[in-house]
Every structure is written in C-alpha cells, then in structure tokens.
Amino acid sequence: MAETFNTMQEKDMGSVVSRQKVIAVLAKVLVYAFLILMAVIVLFPFYWMINSSLKPLEEYRLPIPTFWPHKLLLSNYVNAFNTAKLGRLFLNTLYVGVVSTLLSLVITILSAFAFARLEFKGKNVLFAGLLATMMIPGELFTITNYMTVTRLNWLNTYTVLIVPFLVSVFYIYLLRQNFLQIPDELYLAAKVDGTSDFKYLCKVMIPLSLPTLISITILKMMGAWNSYIWPRLVANKDPLNNGGHRLITNGLRNAFTQTTGEVNYPEQMAAVALVSAPLFLVFVFLRKYIMKGVSRSGIKG
Amino acid sequence: MGGKNTMVESRRPWMAWVYLAPAILLLLVFTVWPIINTFRMAFLVGYRGLEAVQGKTFPFGFGNFTKVIQFQDFLNCLRNTTLLCVITVPLSTFLALLISVCLNSIKTLQKGLQTIFFLPYVTNSIAIGMVFAAMFNIVGSAHGTSNQIIITAGIVNNIITFFGGEPVNWINSGSTYLANMTVMVIYIVWNALPFKILILLGGLQSVNKQYYDAARVDGTSRRRIFTRITVPLLSPMIAYVVITGFIGGFKEYTSIVGVFGEKMGPANDQGRLNTMVGFIYDALENNHQGRASAAALILFGIILVVTLINLQVSKRRVHY
Fold it and tell me: Domain check: are A116 and A157 in the same one?
C-alpha cells in the first residue's frame, strides 16, 4: 500500500517536473524570439543603408523593393564622395579631432593631477564648483561663446572649433578618480628618491591610467566626428573649395538638404555609409574602451 | 577611494595653480563668463548684441521671459520637446529593461547580441536620421501627373502593405503631426536603447545570484521575481537612465534635423517639429541674444525641476 502511494507521488512529481521543463523551454524560445526580433529591428537601418547605396536609382524606385541589389553599383560611392566633397570634410574633421584631443588630454592630465595629488588652498571648493557646472545645459554657454568668438574674429577658423571645448569637467573628474586609486606608497617612494612631481606624473601616473586616457581619446574623437550644432553656428558659411573649415556632419547635411520627395537616395545613402564607416571601424576594434567610457559618462560624444 | 590620502606638503604650493592654469583660464572665458553673461542678457529687455555694441542701453526687467512665453512658436517647441520626452523616456527604458533581463537570462549568443544592441550608440545622429528618412519616405513625386511618375512607398510602407495595411504619409508634404511624431519616437527610442541596455545589463550582471537562488528554492514565480527582486535591485540604474534620459530628451534637436532637415518639419509645414534647443539657436542666429538667453534659462529651469522631481521620486523608490 505504502509502496503504491510512493510510486503515485513519484509519478505526480514526474509530471510536474516535465510540465515545468516544457514551460522553461517555451520561455527560452520566447526570450530568443524577442531578442532576435529586436536585434533585426536594430540592425535594419544599417542593412537598408548599405542595400540602398549599392542600387541604381531606377532599381531603388521599383514598387516592390529588392532586398539585395540585382545590379551592384559602386558609382554611387564615387558620386557621393564628389558631391559632398567628403575628402575635404574628412581632413577638416580629422585635423580638428586630433588637435583638440591632444590639447584636451594635456589639460585634463594636468588638472586631474593637481586635484588628486597636490595640496592647495580652496581645492575642495574649486572641485565642487567645477562639478556644479556639469549640470548646466551647454546651450546656456553657447549664446555668449558665439558672441565671444565673433569678437575675437575666430569665425570660420579651426581655432573656433577647437578651443572653446578643450576643458571637459567630466574628463577631469574621470581621470582624478583613476589617479586617486594609485597607491600613495608609490608617490612617497618617488618623493624619497627625489623624483619631481612632473616626472612622477609622466613616469607612473599616466602609464597606470592608460585605459581611462584611451576612453577619453575615443569619446573626444567621436565628439568631433558627430558635432553638429556649434560647427554649424561658427564655421559653416565659408565656401568649401578654398580652405573652408566645415566639418563632416554639417557637410553631409548641407550636401543633401532634401530629405523627402524625389531624392537620389542611393547616392545619399552611400554618403551616409562613408561617414559612418570610420565610426564602425573604431567600434569594431575599440569596443571595450568605448563601452567602459560610456557607462561612466552617459554623454554622447 | 582611499580614506587615508597622504598628501605631501609641497615646498611650492603655488605649483598646483600652474598645473591648473590652462583649465581655469579656459573655464573662465568659456564657462564662467557665459553663465554670468547669460543671466545679464536674459534680464535686459530686448537685448541685441549688435545694438549693444553701438552703445544702446536696455532696461532691466522680465520682458524677455514674458515675450518668450507668449510666443506661439515657443509654446510649440515646448510642446514638441515635452511630448517627445514623456513618450520616449518611459518607452525606451521599459524596452531596454526587457531586453537586458532577456539578455541576462541566456548564455548562447549573449555576447553577439549585446554587441548588436550597442551598435546604434556609435553612430552619427544626422547620418542615421537620413537613413530613417529614406525608410519612411514615399519615393517619387505625388504631384507628377503629366509625366506619370510611379509612386512607390518607402520600405516601411512596403512592409505595412505586405501585411495588408494602408500606406501612411509619414514625413512627406501633407503628412500629419501624429505621423511625424511617430517617426521621431521610433528613431529616438532606437537611438536611446544602447546606452540604457549597457547600464541596465551591467547592473543585472552585478546582482548577487543568491537572491535568485533563494527565490527559486521558495518556488517564487517569474513575474514575482521580476517585480520583487530584479526591479528593486536595479532601481539605482533605472533611476540613472531615466534622469539622464530626461536631461538628454529636453535637449532633443539633432535627431530631428537628421530626419527632417534644418527646416524642422515636412515641406508644407516647416518648423512644426522645432524644439527648445532649436528655438534658442533660431533666436541666436537672428541676433536676439536677450530672447535666446531667456529661453536657455527656462530650459535650464525645466531640466533642474524635472531632475529634482526624479531624484525625489527615486529617493522614495530606489533601494540601495
């Protein structure tokens, strides 16, 4: 009797377990279906950009779209490069990006070192004041900065694209945190050996903070690549063919002002793909640093 | 960070200021002075930079603020910005939470999918806005009756008709406000997901597995685990993405330029989708610095109030 009761219970247990298993498998399937659907939605614009950029205009305008070009066409890329004068825009943006990143790194390292390692009156008040400026939206600064650079006669120069944004309080904060994690003993030992502050900074602190410095570099370069509002305000008007200072995003928007109607989309998409390509390359090779920098900043570019 | 931070008394305390000099100098010119000057200009009624240079003086008062608030254009910008914020922030946060929880529960493909979901972050919002415009556009001319240009609907409309729906005029001339806003909401959510997923997934991966094991032993249902364990433990990260989402949302501008161009609207109704930031730049380009400053301070005020409300709410709801 007891034996049969036991087996009955086991049987019941068995069916409960197998039902739970079925539910678990179903849940897994649903989870994967949802994730893959979302991934397709996320990727679709990139796919459509590349697909469209390789088609002749006639094929793009077919009533039933083709999901891979029947006739592969690379001339859209050549045309886009020439129409938007992308070569000049690339060089302008690269120059502004590299120079502003280098100068910005120097300024950030020096200030972060002062805040992390040196002792001076009013340090904490000054640091708190700097952090407070991070809350203010950039638009509030832009109005006066536009007047300042106009008065300085900086409009349509590289200077105007580089200098006003060299100091980032956030980068100083980020690097200071990193500097603070370097053990004091190293600094004291260096002091005993008679090493100067500056030499200690260059020989010990900078090498130890390399990952943060790389994150800052990437974010700053991406910032130059994606900046739109300020360059439009201060360096958008001069003609591009003889030494203009226009940046890539503005050039892209200016070259294709029409977004709706009878637009030569294949060419436009080719231009968009060319502008996006460097960002993808950076993403592929330096994803780790970008994700690390971004998760601590919440700032785009 | 180290509690016992031994500072060595430098023999030359002024050296710190040498290290700080470049940063302080630039901050004084491009950050501190603008803050002071923006307040000054905002309270000088009708202030215009060009006239000020010629020696004109302006009375002190709230004139700029009352004028800005009475502007139909400004109210329109405020409505667009607020609507986009109120719709996209909860929507993208919820979707990101769902995706992160799903991603966290799987092993195969997790790394690959994570990379795909982060991809939109590394894009140029103008460039990808143009791709969205291409996807929602109606190809060909609707007016070309004489030479019979074939009208083909863009890929989004193609998909809609494939599933038996009616094509929609999303962004072309004559499109409705609702259709325009739908496109912008889709694009902004698409754009906002990667950052939120990155933060939320990071939070989930640092959650102590013991809580889940305990719940499983007790036979707690999946839904209960989600609402009673996952969400409370994640609440600091959720609060963070919501706050940064609102701050970014009130500064929405370039994504609209990407889709609609600098005209900020469909061809027959330009400026329809203009935002707060767009209003400030329009005023600035027309040399109305007083008006621009007042609008910038209003924007700052809104962001401050919304952030404080968010912090207040999260103080009550967030479990650290």
Answer: yes
User: What's the burial of B257, exposed, middle or buried (CB within 10 Å: 0-12/13-18/19+)?
Assistant: buried
Q: Give yes or no: residues A123 and A192 share one domain.
A: yes
Tally of domains within chain A: 2
Q: Which of B10, B37, B248 sits opposite A118 (nearest CB)?
A: B10
Which of B306-320 are b and which e, b meaning 16 or more Cβ less than 10 Å from the residue's Cβ?
A: bbeebeeebeeebee
Mean pLDDT of chain A: 86
| Identity of residue B199 | I
Residue from B11, B17, B30 to probe the interface with A (highest A Cβ count within 10 Å): B30
C-alpha B251/C-alpha B302 separation (Å) is 11
B82 CB neighbour count, 10 Å cutoff: 16
Residue A36 sits in the same domain as residue A103: no
Give the tokens for residue B42: 């905002």
Query: Which part of chain B has CATH 1.10.3720.10?
Result: 69-129+177-317
The pLDDT assigned to B148 comes to 47
User: What is the structure's pLDDT at A259?
Assistant: 65
Give the whole-angstrom CA distance, residue B123 versus residue A18. Answer: 46
Is the CB of B134 less than 8 angstroms away from the CB of A133? no
Owner of token pair 């002062």: A114
User: Which chain A residues have a beta carbon less than 8 Å from that of B37?
Assistant: 143-144, 147
Together in a domain, A241 and A153: yes
Task: Note down the domain range covering A36.
Answer: 2-53
A149-160 pLDDT tens trace = 999 999 888 999
**Cα nearest neighbour of B263 on chain A:** A257
Nearest CA in chain A to B95: A38
* Exposed / middle / buried, residue B261 (Cβ in 10 Å: 0-12, 13-18, 19+): buried
| pLDDT digits 0-9 by tens, A138-196 | 889 999 999 999 999 998 889 999 999 999 999 999 999 999 988 888 888 988 988 88
Q: Is B186 helix (H, G, I), strand (E, B) or coil?
A: helix
Which of the residues A140, A206, A257 would you substitute to probe the B interface, choosing the one with the greatest number of B C-beta atoms within 10 Å?
A: A140
Determine whether the interchain pair B23/A31 forms a contact, defined as Cβ–Cβ distance below 8 Å. no
A83 and A48 inside one domain: no
B105:A31 CB<8 A = yes
Mean pLDDT, to the nearest integer, of A89-98? 93
Which pLDDT does position A7 carry in this prediction?
59
CA distances from B157 to A39, A213, B165, B175, B178 (A): 20, 46, 9, 14, 16
d(CA A53, CA B108): 33
| Backbone torsion region of residue B306, taken as left when φ is above 0, otherwise alpha when ψ lies between -120 and 50, otherwise beta | alpha
Does residue B272 surpass a pLDDT of 80? yes
Residues A119 and A46 reside in one and the same domain:
no
Q: Give the best residue of A103, A121, A143, A289 to mutate against chain B (max B CB count within 10 A).
A: A143
Window from A289-298, B6-15, B310-319 with minimum mean pLDDT: B6-15
DSSP state at residue B120: G
pLDDT given at position A241: 58
Query: Above 80 in pLDDT, residue B264?
Result: yes
Q: Given an 8 Å threshold on Cβ–Cβ distance, is A35 in contact with B103?
A: yes
Is the domain defined by B69-129+177-317 classed in CATH 1.25.40.10?
no
